[in-house]
């Protein structure tokens, strides 16, 4: 299946894995790349040297292309921007900010740059700055989100720019895949479904929460701080939302979420930890290998796209 995205990245299927902090480590990234998608190492809040080790691990098991996601609020973002160049990584995606200041050095090193954007204005700015494509991410996504839905965002972004658009947010099966292409996207970015992959190292309690989740089981915390984050409702989100309603200050709210994603992913504390997940979690019914996830999505998606309707 050829699109501008598969051609420029050298991948078999137009499926890119989300750059999920703590979750998108070398095992998951290598599995997605081996299955023909673009695996991504999520730098999240990790130190630059940790990211370098993750990159080296992926290189040990696959020759296929993979990328690194740089969460731009990471205090070591500058160093990580250099690590991807030093390690010869071919693709960078970015999140939670504006990557303009790194664009020149990445372009000079022939790194493909794919910023994640949540608005038309940011998409235009990224195109002007030399981005190779953008991920247009709707607020159905898990983690740090914008304020517009995938259905509304993707066609507005595809109309506004000429570089390829990758749709994200609320996509986890062939129907979402086909829908994204109908909206003008040339690939999809998938996060939540890969969290439940066999190769995903998240704690079994985290996977169980995902598989159990229904459509309305996520909550958005941090609306008042300017950093809205979607995760599965639990004791932590309830306490956070209660504090927000009471007008708690930023530091008090921060205390509740400091290290809380790690707590859920690594320790399996699904009560006090942050279980980041998208609204599509309700669709995910079982753990599956990445290869099977990708094959199912592409097969079902292509069948739908090839179906013609008659009156
Ligand atoms: O980045 C994400 N999702 C994330 S990052 C993350 S780590 C984190 N943990 C706790 C609190 C906050 C973050 C978890 N999930 N998605 C991509 C994305 N980027 N969504 C929205 C944006 C975005 C937001 C603002 C992109 C650009 C932007 O620009 C602001 C500016 O600097 O002008």
Structural summary, described in words:
It is a single chain. The chain has 14 helices and eleven strands. The protein has 311 residues and is of the alpha/beta class. The radius of gyration is 18 Å and the shape is globular. It has an eight-stranded parallel sheet. Strands 7-11-10 form a three-stranded antiparallel sheet. It starts with a helix and ends in a 5-residue tail after the last helix. It is 42% helix and 15% strand. The longest helix is centred in the last third of the chain and has 17 residues, at 290-306. It binds ligand TUI. Residues 21, 44, 71, 95-98, 116-118, 122, 137, 143-146, 227, 229 line the site of ligand TUI.
Task: Give a summary of the structure in a few sentences.
The chain is of the alpha/beta class. It is built from 14 helices and eleven strands. The relative contact order is 0.14.
Helix content: 40-55%
Which class do the helix and strand fractions yield?
alpha/beta
Number of strands: 11
Task: Write the H/E string, N to C.
Answer: HEHEHEHEHEHEEHEHEHHEEHHHH
- Please give the order of strands in the largest beta sheet: 1-9-8-6-5-4-3-2
Q: Could you give the topology of this structure?
A:
Layout: H1 4-9, E1 15-17, H2 26-34, E2 39-42, H3 48-61, E3 66-71, H4 77-86, E4 91-95, H5 100-108, E5 112-117, H6 120-128, E6 134-137, E7 143-144, H7 150-160, E8 165-168, H8 174-182, E9 187-190, H9 192-195, H10 204-212, E10 218-221, E11 229-232, H11 235-245, H12 250-257, H13 260-265, H14 290-306
Parallel strand pairs: 1-9, 2-3, 3-4, 4-5, 5-6, 6-8, 8-9
Antiparallel strand pairs: 7-11, 10-11
The structure holds ligand TUI.
The site of ligand TUI has 18 residues, from strand 5 and strand 7.
């Amino acid at each position: 299946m050829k699109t501008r995205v598969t051609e420029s990245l050298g991948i078999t299927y137009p499926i890119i894995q989300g750059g999920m902090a703590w979750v998108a480590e070398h095992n998951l990234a290598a599995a997605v790349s081996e299955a023909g998608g673009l695996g991504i190492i999520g730098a999240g809040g990790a130190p630059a040297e940790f990211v370098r080790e993750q990159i080296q691990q992926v290189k040990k098991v696959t020759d296929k292309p993979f990328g690194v996601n740089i969460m731009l609020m990471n205090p070591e973002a500058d160093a990580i921007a250099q690590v991807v160049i030093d390690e010869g990584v071919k693709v960078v995606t970015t999140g939670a900010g504006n990557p303009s200041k790194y664009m020149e050095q990445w372009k000079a090193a022939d790194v493909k740059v794919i910023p994640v954007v949540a608005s038309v204005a940011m998409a235009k700015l990224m195109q002007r700055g030399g981005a190779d494509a953008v991920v247009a991410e709707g607020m159905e996504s898990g983690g740090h989100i914008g304020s517009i839905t995938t259905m509304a965002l993707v066609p507005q972004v595809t109309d506004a720019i000429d570089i390829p658009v990758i749709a994200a947010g609320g996509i986890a099966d062939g129907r979402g895949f086909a829908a994204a292409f109908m909206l003008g996207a040339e690939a999809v970015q998938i996060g939540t479904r890969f969290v439940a992959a066999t190769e995903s190292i998240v704690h079994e309690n985290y996977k169980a929460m995902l598989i159990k989740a229904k459509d309305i089981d996520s909550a958005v915390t941090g609306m008042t701080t300017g950093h809205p984050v979607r995760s599965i409702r639990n004791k932590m989100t309830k306490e956070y939302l209660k504090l927000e309603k009471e007008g708690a200050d930023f530091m008090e709210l921060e205390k509740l979420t400091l290290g809380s994603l790690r707590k859920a992913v690594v320790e399996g504390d699904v009560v006090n930890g942050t279980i980041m997940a998208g609204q599509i979690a309700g669709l995910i019914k079982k753990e599956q290998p990445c290869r099977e996830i990708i094959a199912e999505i592409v097969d079902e998606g292509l069948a739908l796209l090839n179906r013609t309707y008659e009156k």
